[in-house]
Fold:
Amino acid sequence: MRFPSHPVLKQNKIIMLTSTQQSHFYEQIQQYAHSQLLTLTHEQIDTILQYLNLFIKWNKTYNLSAIREPNDMFTKHILDSLSVAAHIEGERFIDVGTGGGLPGLVLAICFPHREFVLLDSAGKKTRFLENVKRELKLTNVDVQNLRVESYTPGARFDGVISRAFASLHDMLHWCAHLVNDNGRFYAMKGIEPHDELKQLDKQYQLHAVKTLTVPNLDANRCLVELSLAQ
Structure:
């Protein structure tokens, strides 16, 4: 399948990537989205690249991530976040311990008609996210600078997402008040956490452990999907 050529980021946007990197990353997102049956417009891919540019810029001062090299950031942050897009179901989500917005902000760009709360206790990270929300005009994003146990949502969520946030036990313990009766917990992990799964409380139900494939990432990735036991 031949993909259309990519648009160039506008001149008034912050550009930290080279034109070659932007072109290469654009094509990789386009191809990966197609492989995941995920439909992204030119504007959405452009917005993801704008986010990456902002992440690189702010990371120089705010230390949002220990990963510094743009190619590694793209693979380990952007593509890794996109790997769960096809697996989440519902309309309202919270990304707990979102850090610099991974995966929640990337998912918010992919699904503009779904709502995403990005929660983190680190003020420098939520200040970055507020700036990204403003710069990219993301109306479906709500940034919360709180510890998860202190956050009380107006309405509970269809999905609670975490990426390398905590053990399954701790995630479920701290986030049980966030999910609605039919909602799901989505925990992004490396290798399948067999020991953690054996220690699950009876009030939780395991639905699936899905293998995630991230292009150019030489590491195991999986998504653990759980819910409250019915």
Observations:
- Residues 42-62 form the longest helix (21 residues).
- The radius of gyration is 17 Å.
- The chain is about 35% helix and 20% strand.
- The helical segments are 19-35, 42-62, 70-82, 104-110, 123-136, 168-175, 194-198.
